[in-house]
Amino acid sequence: MQTKAKIPEIELKSREEIRSYQNEQLIDLLKYVSKHSKFYQELFNNHNIDIEKIRSIDDLQKIPVTTKNDLQKQGEDFLCVTKDKIIDYVTTSGTLGDPVSFPMSSKDLDRLTYNEYISFACAHTDANDIYQMMLTLDKRFMAGMAYYLGLKEHGAGIIRNGPGSAKLQFDSIKRFKPTALVTVPSFIPKLIEYAENNNIDLNSTSVKKAVCIGEPIRNVDFSLNTLGKKIKEKWDIKLYSTYASTEMGTAFTECEMGKGGHHHPELLIVEFLDENNNPVAPNEAGEVTITTLGVEAMPLLRFKTGDICYHYDEKCECGRNTLRLGPVIGRRQQMLKFKGTSLYPPAIYDVLNEIDEVENYIVEVTTGELGTDDIKVIVGSKTNSDNFIKKLKESFKVKLRVTPQIEIGNPKEIHQQLFANESRKPMIFRDLR
Q: What is the CATH number of domain 1-330?
């Protein structure tokens, strides 16, 4: 069990105490942005909002939501500090459009360090760990820097390997004997394949756990999804799922119970909203909407992330009394209507991840002649037989009840397309509607 010494005191308090704490923090935040943020000054003025009448989280409904479009159009108006206070510049990955810039002050970097310190604590991290980081620390990427700062605060060893090159990853595993990985989980099967082709016994290596970023490894009921199962069948390591974004500067990380990412109330107020911006119940899927606490340079009020999740209120066995976030079901803007079926891209990914012959893939969506969504799946595989295509079609029909158009391509060419324009994340989904 995770020792309570590493759990912040606020996360062990009652729900009432946590809510009271957040209400106080919200009042301070409103005063701060009304004084320093041009965007929120105009928002309050245009909507006749008296912040003195907003005294609790329940009152947040009086404030309009903030969207990615607002950030893209008026990014500089959100800034609350002068440019001489900016220490670091990061940008979002641009998954849903043009990247958004996020300047950070020295205080924001301290907050980021604290966030990842307590997040890695969820994954049983201490000074005896050595983490192999399989992600970039450059390209204006907040997460890579955040992981590094959080691990440094733990006193853990850090191997800055970067993404790709299974050969280099195993050279580092042999040379430095890391106990843990930080990686996009879809890269782990490539490590497994390399190990099998080079007679490496994975379960005798030093690696005992992986903190998985950027992609879900669990279903809504917390069971491992296809990708998670595929990893565990070959490599018996502990998998920790995480969810985070540049805008929130905060991570939801699983503890050893594997029952959802833990909310850190000292860093974030979180709401779950429907399409009409009304709160949903814990048993309903809602859009993750965040209000940042403790951010100096560019705080956000009621920012809609676009990510659809379930949330859970029951106290966790680890001792934390905060809400927990389930895996991302999909992005609001990416919901598809295909042959009478509503689905999100991750459901398509789950089918493809189950098939060993599939090396990589791109899901492309266009608008058909009748105004409905058309889906084409471009599959990277060395196999191009009729039997393989039939297997793909049958898998989609069984799992999703619909079959998209399937095109087989060269895995190397598809890899280049996934990382076109030096993207730091694989651009698996193409929305051409």
A: 3.40.50.12780
